Amino acid sequence: MPEFDLFALLAGASPWWWVALAVIVGVIELLTFSYFLIWVALAALATGVTLWFAPGLGGAAQLALFAALAVVLTVAGRAWLARRRVVDGAPGLNRRSEQMVGRVGKTMAAFERGEGVLLIDGVRWSARLRTGAAGPGETLRVIGAEGMVLICEPA
């Protein structure tokens, strides 16, 4: 059975093999949106460019360079992305119940055990009174939200 020597294979490899690896890993990154593989792809690309300028680089040196670049680029890239993270300008965008805080609505029926239905702009919401009781047609103000249940108090 023939032996497989990765270092010997890499010692005679073209820089284009590293570029091809960079493209393949980059495509996988585009398909998965992991924001992790992009740094590995850049490390493979940098290894290919280095091999272009230093064609005598051995297989062990290529792998060591690739591994070191992958670690350094991943750590530096994640730190860079963390600093550039955009603060959410619309914090309740996908949480409709939180957008109702401060709004006023009318009860559909009497609240039983502090729970009932509140009508705001023609939309029915499950609601819970923080304190007190509410009869049909009373006006309540939304003071909070727990999931899709509005927390209310008399307006």
From TrEMBL:
Bilayer-crossing regions: 6-28, 35-54, 60-81
Pfam families, A to Z: NfeD
Cellular location(s): Membrane
Family matches, as InterPro entries: Membrane_assoc_protease, NA-bd_OB-fold, NfeD-like_C
Domain of life: Bacteria
GO cellular component: plasma membrane
NfeD-like C-terminal domain location: 98-154
Primary localization: membrane
Protein name: NfeD family protein
Organism per entry: Pikeienuella piscinae
